[in-house]
Design goal:
α8 runs antiparallel to α9 and α10 crosses α11. Helix content is 44%, strand content 13%. Strands 1, 2, 3, 4, 5, 6, 7 and 8 form an eight-stranded antiparallel beta sheet that branches. The chain has two domains: 159 residues, no CATH class; 157 residues, no CATH class. It is rod-shaped, with a radius of gyration of 38 Å. It is of the alpha+beta class.
């Protein structure tokens, strides 16, 4: 809510900024130390001082002065309908705002008690804290004004103060982030668990229709080359059920055109399996995929499937298949 970066730049959004009350100079005006108030960017020509009939505008400003301004003649404005005309276009050696402000420049929040204009038409503001017995040491040039106070109810200031406090940061930032990280960790653990369940199904250590497999949605989440492999090693009497297990989308999933096209390719592949056998089935899939890594994986799993159907365990079949692929690729 309050940004104090290099050169004390006060960030604003749509002309609205927030500043924190750092001292007790405005306690008499109803502002406590730690209050965070809203200020608005404003045309400084519209700022008015404290008078018998007006309480005076409260402004936030950079408390710094330019030595060149000490030598200009300044006139107190008593009648804002008749401002003295400028007699000088520029003031020699006057510095820009960016040259005056450093990271150590303080930002004050005081009431305007007098408005002056110099020979170049530049306005200066005399300010004073409501709890202070005297005015501030020097006049504030108009370009050093950050903004004008916008009435901020006490309950709003209390909320802002809480948000900026250590407890507020814990409640509003640290605690939610901790919960979010915890939830993400749970989600990650669920994904890892689902992957482990999938590997058990693929390796034949768990049945495809086991409760844990169904709960983890293994068939839908399984990678394509594992689906191709698993269908081949499935016993003939279970192939229809396994087909649905591997390639049937959940009811809450909207199928895209690309997915529909892929399902048609699956139907073609399964038809080839029924009519021409496993060898032609694997050949079809090797030709279907263009990605080299996917084709290599499918080629490897075609050998694994042969050994598994011959009675080998998945681990032994994988070792033998790697040797076969290495030997045939020489």
């Amino acid at each position: 809510m309050y940004s104090n970066q290099r050169k004390n730049e006060v960030k604003s959004a749509f002309g609205v900024s927030f500043v924190a009350i750092q001292s007790g100079s405005m306690i008499a005006g109803g502002f406590e130390i730690g209050d965070i108030v809203i200020i608005n960017s404003i045309n400084t020509d519209n700022l008015r001082p404290k008078t018998s009939s007006y309480e005076g505008d409260i402004i936030a400003f950079y408390y710094v002065r330019d030595n060149a301004d000490n030598y200009t003649k300044k006139t107190l404005i008593n009648d804002f309908n008749n401002i003295p005309e400028p007699t000088l276009e520029t003031i020699p050696n006057r510095k820009d705002k960016d040259d005056l402000i450093t990271e150590y420049t303080k930002i004050y929040f005081h009431r305007v008690v007098g408005v002056y204009v110099d020979e170049s038409g530049t306005r200066f503001f005399q300010t004073q804290g409501d709890s202070n017995s005297s005015v501030d040491s020097y006049l504030i040039r108009e370009d050093l004004v950050v903004g004008k106070y916008v009435n901020t109810p006490l309950w709003v200031r209390s909320i802002f103060r809480f948000c900026a406090s250590g407890i507020g940061m814990i409640v509003l930032v640290v605690a939610p982030l901790t919960i979010l990280i915890f939830m993400q960790m749970l989600s990650l653990l669920e994904q890892v668990s689902a992957l482990m369940t999938e590997r058990k199904v693929v390796m034949g250590l768990m049945k495809y229709d086991d409760i844990e497999s169904i709960k983890s949605n293994v068939g839908y989440e399984m990678r394509d080359f594992d689906k191709i492999y698993y269908y081949d090693i499935t016993a003939p009497e279970n192939k229809n059920d396994v087909k649905d297990f591997l390639w049937q989308y959940p009811e809450n999933v909207k199928i895209s055109r690309k997915q529909k096209a892929h399902l048609k390719m699956v139907e073609v592949a399964l038809d080839i399996y029924d009519k021409k056998g496993a060898k032609e089935y694997w050949t079809y899939w090797k030709n279907y995929y263009r990605n080299k890594l996917t084709r290599k994986k499918i080629n490897l799993l075609s050998y694994v499937a042969l050994y598994v159907k011959g009675g080998r365990t998945y681990e032994d079949a994988l070792k033998l298949a790697k040797k076969d692929v290495k030997r045939y690729n020489r």
